[in-house]
């Protein structure tokens, strides 16, 4: 198959996945129970070096960019930087396909997800939830981002509610936290490595940092994925 034919075939598969996803979503909305996984993925494909390292065929695998706090994926134990390879018996090739598979299920359905974490294969059972209400509710929401730059890898986790926004940045050997009130006042902006540094953060906010596991020692593979563009479902 020529390079042009492969690209056309890939485009056709993505368009079909998007169309089916829209139809599945509309059907779920009519029945009031759109299935929801609670992740944001990197739209694109794994870099060839990482596919080879994990023993995956080219084009297989989806990188998790973020996990919604207390959502179905979070409760099941899925984490940012996990590489998802199968949902039940379906091999995963791109985020629109995964979104279609999820939205064709119902809230409360269970699904088996195969994934790689730090190079090791795992299987996790997820109980799908119902799509959340639009922004503006009082519940806390958590977002994650993972990246690499000239200064090295980093993971940024943010949790926000009606009172505070807490942004925790993890780098190898260094953790920092920025806490702002809803009005934008800085409550704390500094390191979060030693007991002395942690004591500078109000106790209730320290509890929330620990409860939501905002810091991590896991960082993104330098060749994890290409063509970044997020998709949430």
Q: What's the CATH H-level homologous superfamily of the largest domain?
A: PDZ domain
**Series of secondary-structure elements, N-terminal to C-terminal:** HEEEHEHEEHEEEEEEEEHHEE
CATH topology (level 3) name of the largest domain: Pdz3 Domain
Characterize the largest beta sheet: strand count, sense, and whether it forms a barrel.
Answer: 7 strands, antiparallel
Give the tally of structural domains. 2
Q: Tally the helices.
A: 6
Q: What is the β-strand count?
A: 16
Q: Which overall shape is indicated by the principal axes computed on the Cα atoms? A: globular
Radius of gyration in whole Å, from Cα?
19 Å
Strand content: 35-45%
CATH class of the largest domain: Mainly Beta
The helix fraction, in percent, is: 25-40%
Counting helices, strands and paired strands, the structural category is alpha+beta
The CATH architecture term of the largest domain is Roll
C-alpha termini separation: 33 Å
Rounded average pLDDT:
76
User: pLDDT under 50 segments (min length 5)?
Assistant: 20-30, 221-229
Task: Give your account of this protein's structure.
With 233 residues, the protein is of the alpha+beta class. The protein folds into two domains: 112 residues, PDZ domain (Pdz3 Domain); 71 residues, no CATH class. It contains six helices and 16 strands. Strands 2, 4, 5, 6, 7, 8 and 16 form a seven-stranded antiparallel sheet that branches. The chain is globular and about 50 Å long.
Q: How are the SSEs placed, and which strands pair?
A:
Layout: H1 3-30, E1 35-36, E2 39-42, E3 45-46, H2 48-54, E4 62-67, H3 72-76, E5 83-87, E6 90-91, H4 95-103, E7 110-117, E8 120-127, E9 129-130, E10 141-149, E11 152-160, E12 164-171, E13 174-181, E14 186-191, H5 195-199, H6 203-211, E15 225-226, E16 230-232
Antiparallel strand pairs: 1-9, 2-4, 2-16, 3-15, 4-5, 5-6, 5-7, 7-8, 10-11, 11-12, 12-13, 13-14
């Amino acid at each position: 198959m020529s390079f042009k034919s492969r690209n056309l075939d890939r485009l056709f598969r993505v368009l079909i996945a998007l169309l089916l996803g829209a139809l599945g979503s509309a059907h779920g909305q009519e029945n009031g129970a759109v299935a929801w996984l609670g992740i944001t993925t990197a739209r694109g494909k794994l870099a060839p070096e990482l596919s080879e390292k994990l023993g995956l065929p080219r084009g297989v695998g989806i990188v998790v960019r973020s996990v919604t706090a207390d959502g179905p994926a979070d409760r099941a134990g899925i984490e940012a930087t996990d590489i998802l390879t199968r949902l039940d018996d379906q091999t995963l090739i791109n985020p629109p396909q995964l979104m279609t598979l999820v939205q064709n299920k119902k809230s409360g359905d269970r699904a088996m997800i195969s994934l790689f974490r730090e190079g090791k294969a795992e299987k996790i059972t997820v109980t799908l939830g119902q799509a959340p209400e639009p922004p503006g509710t009082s519940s806390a929401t958590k977002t994650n981002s993972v990246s690499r730059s000239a200064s090295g890898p980093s993971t940024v986790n943010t949790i926000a509610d009606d009172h505070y926004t807490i942004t925790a940045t993890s780098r190898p050997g260094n953790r920092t936290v920025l806490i702002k009130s809803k009005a934008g006042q800085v409550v704390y902006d500094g390191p979060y490595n030693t007991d002395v540094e942690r004591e500078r953060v109000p106790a209730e906010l320290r509890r929330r940092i620990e409860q939501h596991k905002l810091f991590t020692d896991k960082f993104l593979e330098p060749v994890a994925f290409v063509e970044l563009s997020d998709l949430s479902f």
